[in-house]
Write a structure and sequence with these properties.
two-stranded antiparallel ribbon, Diphtheria Toxin Repressor, domain 2, elongated
């Protein structure tokens, strides 16, 4: 890989684009308004094209004004349709942004013959070309997009810092924000303005399509890895920076594996962002697929162990022949064979059960745990029968689920509520508290 000064400028422009989008985008994701980012990033195109048609140049100020106005109009039209037109909000967004985006494309085609406007640049961006358009910044010539995006980033940081508490409350609990007197409508349209300005600032770098991913993916990734807002914002910014840096490196290196020269940096940034999201989705310690599978598996195994203890306790109550207890476990407990085997192994290691010939028998620690479980089950059966009026022959299934989440404190409350009853609705004895 041959790294040059141009690559450094490209990465810097990519980092600024990604970070600019990640800040307001995270609040869009928190507000469950990700589609609004999509809508605004497309719908500002008529404002951008109108600025070109009116001024004949790509001056930043007219572009920003046009984008902000159309972005606000998008939010206003969407809310008006949803509130007064009996249209579901996501459908209203779809109607508004597709209509405005189509209008913008027509205006871009019309403007392309008279001003310096490239439709493919608007749609896909030209991050690799940004170092060629430079301006003087003090004694240094820098790509024009760097101070533009730096200014937008400064505005985003300033606004979100000034209204951090208000955005935080309104994002998590809009009703509470209204109750506390926060200007909910002002905050909403302020955020929409930030999204619109950010989107148009990033058009030239990553295009109107890829900016959607940069608005949504870092925030969505961060929400899988953290629960506190400051941590979510920090992780979203790190994910944005990593997407930009690794995306450009991948755009240089990966095509060589297939004998190609290079590929789109902005496109590869989005691919890397998607891979980071996928990694968080799979490996997140709390919300990841693997951690959730592990927790579900551990819970299922614990419930199966308790079911084994409960079954053995009932066999002892019935004074049934336990010589066929292994076969009975297979018939009575609908679990995979390896799960039943693992449950019995774990119970044996804890000294709860042991094999006596072909019979699986309870030891005292297992009998103690089983007695508490059966007591919980039968207390719940009686409670459901007495206080919820469920027929006696229908209480077993519900009590079987509740018994696994009932601790000593809740058993004591049930006992007090049921006046220390001694038998369940079927007349079976409720075991004493061990």
């Amino acid at each position: 890989m041959n790294w040059t000064a141009l690559d450094s400028w490209i990465v810097l422009a990519g980092v600024l684009s990604a970070v600019c989008c990640a800040l307001p985008g995270t609040f869009l994701v928190l507000r469950r308004m990700s589609l609004m980012g999509d809508a605004i990033s497309h719908a500002v195109l008529p404002g951008l094209a109108a600025a070109f048609l009116l001024t004949g140049s790509r001056a930043s100020l007219p572009m920003f004004i046009g984008a902000a106005l159309v972005g606000l109009l998008t939010a206003l039209f969407t809310q008006a349709l949803a509130r007064h037109g009996a249209v579901e909000e996501s459908a209203a967004m779809g109607v508004v942004f597709t209509s405005l985006f189509a209008l913008g494309l027509l205006m871009v085609v019309r403007a392309a013959d008279t001003v310096d406007l490239d439709p493919s640049c608007v749609l896909y961006g030209a991050l690799e070309l940004t170092p060629l358009d430079t301006v003087r910044l003090g004694a240094l010539r820098v790509p024009r997009v760097v101070p533009v995006l730096g200014g937008v980033l400064a505005v985003n940081v300033l606004v979100l810092a000034l209204f951090y508490k208000e955005f935080k409350v309104s994002s998590f609990d809009p009703e509470l924000a209204t109750t506390l007197g926060y200007p909910a409508a002002f905050l909403h349209y302020l955020l929409m303005t930030l999204v619109a300005i950010t989107a148009v600032a990033c058009f030239e770098s990553v295009g109107s399509i890829l900016v959607i991913a940069m608005l949504v993916v870092p925030g969505a990734t961060a929400l899988l890895l953290a629960d506190r807002l400051y941590a979510v914002l920090a992780i979203a910014l790190l994910a944005a920076v990593a997407s930009a840096v690794l995306g450009h490196v991948a755009a240089i290196v990966v095509p060589g594996w297939w004998g190609l020269d290079d590929t789109s940096t902005s496109g590869m940034m989005t691919v890397v962002g998607g891979l980071l999201f996928l990694g968080a989705l799979v490996f997140s310690p709390r919300h990841g697929m693997l951690s959730r599978w592990y927790r579900r598996s551990v819970l299922a195994l614990r419930i199966l162990e308790e079911d084994v203890l409960g079954l053995l306790y009932r066999l002892e109550e019935w004074r049934a022949d336990q010589e066929g207890s292994a076969a009975l476990l297979r018939r009575a407990l609908p679990a995979r064979r390896w799960m039943r085997w693992l449950a019995v192994v774990r119970l044996r290691r804890r000294g709860a059960v042991h094999w006596q010939g072909a019979a699986l028998r309870l030891l005292e620690p297992g009998r103690h745990a089983a007695r508490s479980l059966i007591r919980s089950h039968r207390l719940w059966e009686l409670y459901l029968y007495r206080h919820i009026a469920i027929p006696a022959d229908h209480v077993h299934a519900s009590a079987e689920r509740l018994e696994h989440v009932t601790g000593a404190a809740l058993r004591h409350e049930l006992t007090e509520t049921l006046a220390s009853a001694r038998r369940d609705p079927q007349g079976r004895e409720i075991p004493d508290e061990s």
